[in-house]
Structure prediction request, 69 residues.
Amino acid sequence: MMHEMAKKANVERQTALRTDTDKLVKLATELKTYVEKSNEHVMSVDVIKKADEIEKLARSVKDKMKGPN
Prediction:
């Protein structure tokens, strides 16, 4: 029974990792677009917000990759 629960948890974690990494790619692409639209004199608040969002999601992905403690 425990083996099945662990297996199910691993499948769910893998699914969440795929979803989160897909979202990371999307956010990174959006960040790149924002940066390309900005110039050396103006940095959009959107760029900072997007970078923060990426950072939080990347940490979450990292934690999920480590698995349960």
Q: What stands out?
A: The chain has one domain: 2-66. The mean pLDDT is 88. The first helix runs from residue 2 to 37.
